[in-house]
Amino acid sequence: MHWTRIIGIALLVCGAILLYMGWSASAGLAEQAHEALTGRFTDETRNYFLGGGVAAAVGLVMVVFGVKR
User: Fold this and answer.
1) Which of 1, 15, 34, 63 could form a cystine bridge with 55, CB 3.0-4.6 A?
2) Domain coordinates in residue numbering, the chain
3) What is the pTM of this model?
4) DSSP state at residue 27
């Protein structure tokens, strides 16, 4: 297995963890109240979602379209 695929798998796992952390943070009482009042998630929760999504997408691209031999 080539190193780009290994890094891709690691990014996929990290992205999934960040997405889960964002999901669990958005279920908290303080986050629910903030979203109800402002209509938006807090910056921390949004960063979890964005970072997790980007890491998972880049990891998926690296795994699927990694180095072709």
Assistant:
1) 15
2) 3-64
3) 0.85
4) T
